[in-house]
UniProtKB/TrEMBL annotation:
GO terms for cellular component: cytoplasm. This is Biotin/lipoyl attachment domain-containing protein. The keyword Cytoplasm does not apply. GO terms for molecular function: pyruvate carboxylase activity.
Length: 685
């Protein structure tokens, strides 16, 4: 005990930073190999906020940690990528490129790390090779953690090639879960493909990505030991969420078996779905005889710094509290948990979450892949949609009936559909009738090959109806890198230029390539409000100035500013006039309330009127093959005429019959309601 305590208080000195930006991948790998004990990656700036706070942590607050990170002796700081990129432009109104610039300035000693979803990069759908190569070449990141929710290593090729050619560190990740098919032999096969892709083990670090936190200590120890036996020089980095309550002993087991890097976050950030606490991990490891390379004093100061601002984000925490060992069954990953609860709350079906999680546990035995984005979104949208449909059509008894049906099929009958009654078979064949385009794209190989084979034929019959046999015949196990045609980048750049009325910057163009609708909204917001997201304190950013005399002081471009609320007028015809003093100059701003006069929403009623099947955002009118669709255009039955985005998934709107577009009733980026009129279609004479 005394030895462990002495090790705890030992600190890494400022000059003991062992890896820095500018080092080659080979130099970084060798530095980690030579390091005594283990080192740490802090995920506080990215995954911690995604997993427990819906990606709402602002760079205004996170940047206060950077000077301390600069002398903590970290391996890296994951500060970029995943859904933080998307929520940044959509909600926080921050550019991921701005964040990199800020952190480079404040912590020049720290390797910056991103998380990319192979062909999906920072989005939710596969992008063609030229988009991947263009985007990856433009982003200034040192460590590129790359995973596939299918463990389809072929999908990583484009990212790996560009990253390694640039001399940056490629960190391929194997997606981990616990299932009867997820054996050591299976994972060794994935590692073998990764090593072949990278040309050896001297310029990469392998990540085991346990995104749901389902690996118990014995299972993780066994897997790390097995990999090290076959690849003794391969560096292993273990990433693991805490949901099942076993995170710290699982990290320790990984380190005992040979892992050199583990992921942690500030103790003050730890809630229920994120990552293990840095101070607790360091203390536990040291007491167990494993040295941790860490400036303990700087880590304690960083933890205290978090406590000064974390209270601003209590509203963003999940309404479901506490660890959940049931995650080993439903496997909802930490990154998807709070955002799914938020969507359920907004959609008015939060009370159905236990049922949805139960259905997910059964679904992921029918369609087998790894529940990490975009797979987790496909699972969530599919299962929540099924449960909601039963709830709307049959009430609570219908939801219970659904669970009883799936439990019998999966757990009692071993998924033998012929063992079910005729009535039960018919009901199963209706299960995926309203499935999203992304789910259908998964079934035909649009994301790559599934890890252990395609689902049973009845799943296709349920999803595609009369076309199910043709869909099976047309499915492919090729990588999207080999099937998707290159995008016309010049045309897309021109489209963006026309939308914003000027030539876009390189950063704006990349944002647009990833998330077209939200990038346009972000650019519009920033042109109107400037640098406000970067300079306003979080309490003011979220709540504004509430009472007369409230004020906020900040600096912008080295100049001091003061905004003071003078008065808020009475509402008149849905408009309120707000009086502010900006550096003692009085200004009046009209603000529209929810009661402001709005345009009437037209609903689809007739057989020739195409309505929205769900609530969503219009992010494309037309389709990639023919481009935008206009009045007068002739479309064919089954052709995509628009695409809605809801809960990060795409929903294609198809023409119900061949005809001429008589009216386009929507505009790009419109928010539409279920049943709202989208198009009027006239049948061909």
């Amino acid at each position: 005990m005394e030895t462990g305590h002495a090790s705890q208080v030992a600190s890494v000195q400022d000059d003991d930073v062992f890896v820095r930006p500018g080092m080659t991948a080979r130099e970084i790998v060798q530095a980690v190999r030579n390091l005594k004990g283990v080192c740490l990656t802090s995920v506080s700036m990215r995954d911690a906020g995604q997993s427990d706070f819906k990606n709402r942590h602002r760079i205004y607050d996170l940047k206060t940690l950077a000077p301390l990170y600069n002398r903590m002796g970290l391996f890296s700081a994951e500060c970029h990528g995943g859904a933080r990129w998307h929520v940044g432009i959509m909600n926080r109104r921050e550019s991921p490129f701005e964040e990199i610039q800020i952190l480079r300035r404040l912590m020049p000693n720290v390797l910056l790390q991103t998380l990319v979803r192979e062909t999906n990069l920072w989005g939710y759908r596969p992008y063609p090779r030229n988009v991947i190569e263009y985007a990856v070449a433009q982003v200034d990141i040192d460590v590129w953690r790359c995973f596939s929710f299918l463990n389809d290593v072929r999908n990583m090729r484009a990212v790996a090639e560009v990253v390694m050619k640039r001399g940056r560190l490629f960190e391929p990740a194997i997606s981990f879960t616990v299932a009867d098919w997820a054996t050591d032999a299976y994972y060794l096969g994935v590692v073998r493909e990764i090593v072949a892709l990278a040309g050896g083990v001297d310029e990469i670090i392998l990540c085991i990505k346990d995104m749901a936190g389902v690996g118990n200590p014995a299972r993780i120890s066994q897997l790390v030991t097995t990999i090290k036996e076959h690849y003794p020089d391969l560096l292993i980095h273990y990433h693991r969420h805490i949901t099942d309550g076993l995170a710290i002993p699982a990290l320790f087991a990984a380190a005992q078996s040979g892992a050199k890097i583990v992921d942690v976050q500030e103790d003050a950030l730890v809630r229920f779905y994120g990552h293990p606490p840095i101070l607790g991990v360091q203390a536990y490891f040291e007491e167990g005889g494993i040295h941790v390379h860490l400036n303990r004093m700087a880590a304690e100061q960083t933890n205290q710094q978090v406590r000064e601002w974390i209270g601003h984000y209590e509203w963003a925490e999940s309404p479901f509290k506490g660890y959940d060992h049931g995650v080993t069954k439903h496997r909802m990953p930490g990154g998807a948990f709070p955002s799914s609860f938020e969507q359920a709350e907004k959609g008015g079906f939060l009370h159905l979450m236990p049922a949805i999680l139960r259905v997910m546990a059964l679904y992921n035995q029918i369609v087998r892949y790894f529940d990490v984005t975009p797979g987790s979104q496909i699972t969530w949208v599919t299962c929540s949609g099924i449960v909601n449909r039963y709830a709307k059509e049959q009430g609570e008894s219908g939801v219970r009936r659904l669970i009883a049906l799936l439990s019998k099929f999966v757990e009692e009958k071993g998924q033998d559909i012929e063992a079910m009654s005729e009535e039960e078979r018919e009901e199963l064949l209706q299960l995926f009738r309203n499935a999203s385009g992304d789910f259908k794209n998964l079934l035909v190989g649009g994301y790559g090959r599934l890890p252990v084979g395609w689902p049973a034929d009845w799943v296709y019959q349920s999803a595609f109806g009369d076309e199910w046999q043709a869909k099976i015949q047309g499915r492919t196990d090729r990588s999207p890198l080999d099937t998707l045609k290159d995008d016309d980048l010049d045309r897309l750049r021109q489209t963006l230029s026309e939308a914003i009325g000027r030539a876009p910057t390189e950063e704006e163009f990349i944002l647009y390539l990833m998330h077209p609708k939200d990038a346009l909204s972000f650019i519009e917001f920033r042109e109107r409000y400037g640098m406000a997201p970067l300079v306003l304190p979080t309490d003011v950013w979220r709540n504004g100035l509430r009472r007369s005399g409230d004020k906020v002081d900040f600096e912008l471009d080295g100049k001091p500013y003061c905004i003071e609320l003078v008065s808020v007028g009475a509402e008149h015809e849905g408009v309120i006039h707000v009086v502010l003093k900006v550096n003692n100059v009085t200004r009046v701003y009209p603000v529209a309330t929810p009661r402001a006069r709005k345009a009437e929403i037209r609903m689809a009623k007739g057989p020739n009127e195409i309505g929205a099947p769900i609530n969503g955002n219009v992010w494309r009118i037309g389709n990639p093959q023919r481009g935008p669709i206009h009045v007068g255009d002739v479309v064919h039955k089954g052709e995509e005429v628009a695409n809605l985005e809801a809960m990060k998934m795409e929903h294609a709107i198809l023409a119900p019959f061949s005809g001429r577009i008589a009216e386009v009733c929507i505009k790009l980026n419109d928010v539409v309601k279920e049943g709202q009129l989208l198009f009027v279609l006239e049948k061909n004479a």
